[in-house]
Known about the structure:
Layout lengths: L9 H20 L3 H7 L6 H7 L9 H22 L4 H29 L10 H5 L6 H9 L11 H11 L1 H10 L4 H18 L2 H18 L8 H14 L2 H4 L10 H18 L1 H7 L2 H27 L5 H38 L10
Helix pairs in contact: 1-4, 1-15, 1-16, 1-17, 4-8, 4-9, 4-11, 4-14, 5-8, 5-16, 5-17, 9-11, 10-11, 10-14, 12-14, 14-15, 16-17
Amino acid sequence: MRDRPTGRIGSLDGLRGVAAAVVVVHHTLLTIPAFSDGNYRAAVPGWASWLVYSPAHVLWAGSEAVFVFFVLSGFVLTLPALRRSQDWIAYYPSRLVRLYLPVLVSIGLALALFFLVPRQDQPNQSYWINRHAEPLSLHSLFNDVTLLSPSLVNSPLWSLTWEVFFSLLLPLFVSIAAVTRRWWWATGIIGIVLSSIGWYEHVLWLTYLPMFLIGSALAAGWERIPDVGTLVGWVLLPASLAGITAEWWLPDDAWWSPAVRAFVLASAGIIVVLAGKWLPAERFLLGGVPRELGRLSFSLYLVHEPVTVSLANLLPATFPSWLIVVAIPIGLGVAVVFSRFVELPAHRLAKRIAKTLSTKPPVPQAV
Length: 367
């Protein structure tokens, strides 16, 4: 086994960047009616079916990319707490500032765009864009600010609801990981099963919180997981990329279809393992583009969707196929500015808060 540093695993930052890019592509393609219809399981034209109902869906698998985010968060927040004692008094205010301050500014940006560019329900626009033409209310704004039930003013915030819940419950997840360290693989399987049951029964907390448990289990067993051999990795990579989109191309009326979600979540876990334990994946994810996307990932995730929706409402409805040429670079540009003037200062403030409240070195924060 190759020696690795005990600190932050840089290739996982690259994986986070790639996942964020997939979410951006996902929302950009949803401005095109055919892909929007496919996303809601409606019939699509033949030219689009290969990108919707096949393993090629991985190129814009937004929900599945968020699953990878959840597994990653479970991993990167649990691993440092397992390696050294955590000062929970300092952790909580620091973590909440790290999350909520950028979220609040992103809501302000989304509201500004909401008022500057009215959301309109137009017949030639995609169903996804037209869904954003909902009225603004104090109740929905309260849900956005608290992350209790975010509205479509900035729809990606729904995942931050579960990031906050996990962050608040982190001591429980760390305790589970520590107690079951020798049986980390069993904990991971339990997380997969619980999340699959939650999805099947339509119970949101049971669907999403166990995804973080999968990451916590990987953190507990990380030193026991061997490096992935080159040939094995080249088998697991396409299998996991196809597996994470299995719900899009496997039949949903077979007797074994309830188990497909378990296949998806296991694939998400394998992708995280490959990112940190398979040399070709590590080399790619440590490259300049993935690492830079990883650095911008949180900001990009927070700002890209209001920008995309605003551009879709500004441009003629006959222009959606070209929106990807405009929305992605503009979204990246806004993310760069947001990262420089909002996320980075929030991160520094969170570290200062942790340092002020604790005599111990602050545990690295992650999103």
